[in-house]
Design a protein that fits this description.
Elements (H helix, E strand, L loop, with lengths): L4 H32 L6 H29 L2 E3 L6 H14 L6 E5 L6 E6 L3 E7 H6 L2 H16 L2 H28 L10 H38 L3 H22 L1 H7 L22 H10 L15 H15 L6
Parallel strand pairs: 2-4
Antiparallel strand pairs: 1-2, 3-4
Length: 332
């Protein structure tokens, strides 16, 4: 099947951004080494910083699934009445070309949402919240599951872990250089005064890199949305409706129980929809009206630059582009 141009542009954006992040980080670290190593014995600091940051990220990757399960009260799906959810995951996994079907879990969080997580040691899992199953009809749940399985197929957990090492390394190295410049043995030398300045600059640069990482995170959400559109019949429209229902329900929760959303935001980068993105239902008589209203907005999230998820209005319009290009080459 021909690849829609929207997907091609998305892939090019991801490749370009990853190349930019890796290239700039390599350039900055190389420049620091050439500037400082000839004058100061900082090899232990630089190598030690790299080893520490990599070790911390690997540990986080290894224990993260268990921590996430503890925070979101995740349990295996055992209710025989929900066998249809397992059947959907199996069907979508087969269409996605996965060699192993992810385990289906249920999160005891009182908000409608879903997430994928895991690693090669714990196995990969797809979790839906109790409220999601109560809020969405089965066809929209299927679109949500396809989105989450898309994250697993694209190895997004591993990708985000790897590129997150770079800004963390730059920040930590900057902090260590500041401490070295202020309290090191050469703190009385005038030439050593540049070291804390370089450290401060690196910490500022790490903030910019974190913005790049957030942008990649938003691109991965678009990519997972695309997977739902490609693997589920009318997947783009069903995912739009599912996201709209999630935002409506989140809006009701925010009005009456805002603490529920706060507690659910601990790992919101994993969720299909940012819990803070909400929609009020005033004046709407159907979910399709809500979808069209969202698409008509210039944007719903004024601070998208600092968000792990795309602005819903842009996200819905992107799904429209993918759906329109699939009309001539339908999946089913």
């Amino acid at each position: 099947m021909p690849i829609p141009s929207a997907i091609t542009r998305l892939r090019l954006s991801m490749i370009s951004m990853l190349a930019l992040i890796i290239g700039l980080a390599t350039l900055i670290l190389t420049a620091i080494m050439f500037m400082l190593l000839p004058q100061y014995d900082l090899s232990i600091i630089i190598v030690g910083s790299l080893a520490l940051i990599v070790a911390l990220h690997v540990i986080q990757w290894l224990v993260g699934p268990k921590l996430l399960e503890a925070v979101y009260k995740v349990r295996p799906l055992r209710d025989p009445r929900l066998q249809w959810v397992r059947d959907m995951v199996s069907r979508i996994s087969e269409r996605s070309g996965l060699s192993k079907v992810p385990k289906v879990m249920v999160a005891g969080v009182d908000i409608p949402n879903a997430f994928a997580y895991g690693n090669v040691f714990t196995g990969y899992k797809v979790a839906v919240t109790d409220r999601l199953l109560k809020t969405l009809p089965p066809d929209e749940v299927e679109a949500v599951l396809a989105h989450e399985i898309g994250h697993i197929k694209h190895r997004d957990v591993e990708l985000m872990m790897l590129i997150s090492i770079l800004p963390a390394l730059i920040f930590w190295l900057g902090r260590v250089l500041m401490m070295f410049g202020w309290f090191g043995e050469r703190r009385r030398e005038e030439s050593a005064a540049i070291i804390p300045l370089i450290g401060l600059a690196l910490m500022a640069v790490s903030f910019v890199f974190n913005l790049f990482i957030l942008y990649v995170s938003r691109l991965r959400e678009y990519y997972a949305d695309t997977h739902a559109a490609l693997t589920v019949s009318h997947g783009a429209r069903r995912l739009q409706r599912a996201l709209a229902r999630i935002m409506i329900e989140s809006g009701l929760i925010k009005r009456h129980r805002p603490e529920a959303l706060i507690s659910a935001s601990s790992f919101k980068a994993f969720l299909i929809s940012d819990p803070d993105a909400v929609v009020r239902t005033y004046g709407f008589t159907s979910i399709d009206e809500v979808v069209e209203w969202i698409k008509s907005r210039p944007r719903l999230v004024p601070t998208e630059l600092f968000s792990t998820h795309p602005d819903p209005a842009k996200r819905f319009r992107y799904l429209d582009k993918v759906a329109s290009e699939l009309l001539t080459t339908p999946v089913f």
